[in-house]
Amino acid sequence: DSTDPANVGGTCQLCHNLCHDCTGPDVGDCTTCKYGSDGGNCTDCGSNCDVCPTDQSLICTTCESGYKRVTADHPTATPAIKNGDCFDTNCPDGYYNLTATEDCYLCTSPCKHCSSSDDCTLCDPGNYMQPSPNNTTCDGNCPSGYYKEDSTDPANVGGTCQLCHNLCHDCTGPDVGDCTTCKYGSDGGNCTDCGSNCDVCPTDQSLICTTCESGYKRVTADHPTATPAIKNGDCFDTNCPDGYYNLTATEDCYLCTSPCKHCSSSDDCTLCDPGNYMQPSPNNTTCDGNCPSGYYKEDSTD
């Protein structure tokens, strides 16, 4: 109205730019909103939006030049990001774009950075980059055989899954002492394996080697009285140890019948254990602690 409305008419004045209709110049004078309402006052699509639609969605359709527009909500971001927000130069954490001019698309949770929807390059806090072949995904846990290694900034960036010691099935760190379960078995303290020169050690906790390295022979039975004791699955270079035999050059080593020191088959002794004597014919492939009548014991020179 004019200053003298009884005698002079007034003028039409522009409403606040957030108002569709109004009773005065301020945002609080809006009676209907141009873009939408935050539940109290009228509002718009936010800073750096070039085109804010009048459909009351408050989702920016075009950002100002040089700004990138996100295309989906990220309510767990700090602060929360909503569909249509505009960001200067780069997409915010949790979003990616395929070209320099493209909008920002949401990474698959829980990625902090990604190069495409589900190709993570960094994880959200509390999550860990998985090992190959899943090394573009993040998860709150690591698979068996790996432990969680936090980043140097764990409040803001997730960590990675690192390989356990080769004797561990599960672990909390890189050393054998960090094993929580053993891959092959335990010696009663630390995890251990099937011993030296074993090529295939099974994961059944038996600690019995099933295949020795090339050029080594595997024994197939314990020999606890040997010095040192020999156990099933031990591997020996070139020849079978005393007390064992093999029938072919490539075959495993089988236990001689006690008290043979060397044998050509299970009970065909060629040398006796100490304190035993090769018997006379027709038992001249057997050993015994005594000699039969008519024979005396002659000790070896060794």
Give a quick precis of the structure.
By secondary structure, the protein is mostly beta strands. It has strands spanning 19-22, 30-33, 36-37, 42-43, 49-51, 62-63, 67-69, 86-88, 95-96, 105-106, 111-116, 119-123, 128-129, 138-139, 146-149, 159-163, 168-171, 179-182, 185-186, 191-192, 198-200, 211-212, 216-218, 235-237, 244-245, 254-255, 260-265, 268-272, 277-278, 287-288.
Task: Explain how this protein is built.
- The structure is a single chain.
- With 302 residues, this protein is an all-beta fold.
- The chain has strands at residues 19-22, 30-33, 36-37, 42-43, 49-51, 62-63, 67-69, 86-88, 95-96, 105-106, 111-116, 119-123, 128-129, 138-139, 146-149, 159-163, 168-171, 179-182, 185-186, 191-192, 198-200, 211-212, 216-218, 235-237, 244-245, 254-255, 260-265, 268-272, 277-278, 287-288.
- The strands form 14 sheets. Strands 14-13-16-15 form a four-stranded mixed β-sheet, with no helix packed on it. A two-stranded antiparallel sheet has the order 1-2.
- The radius of gyration is 41 Å and the shape is rod-shaped.
- The mean pLDDT is 90.
